Amino acid sequence: MDGVSEGVSIAYPSDARTTPRGPVGTDAKVKLWFPDQFATKEEAFKAQKDDGVKRVFPAVVFTVATAKRGGRIRTCAVPLDHKMEPWAMELMRYFEEHGNSPVFPLTRQRVWAQSKKVWRDLVYVIEDYSVVIDKKGLGIERIDSESTEKRREIKRIDRHPRDWSLRALRHLRASDLVDRYGFTGANLSSFGGWTISAAMSASSSVVRYFDLDWRGCFVKLLKKRY
Question: Where are the domains of the chain?
Answer without folding.
Answer: 4-122+164-221, 127-161
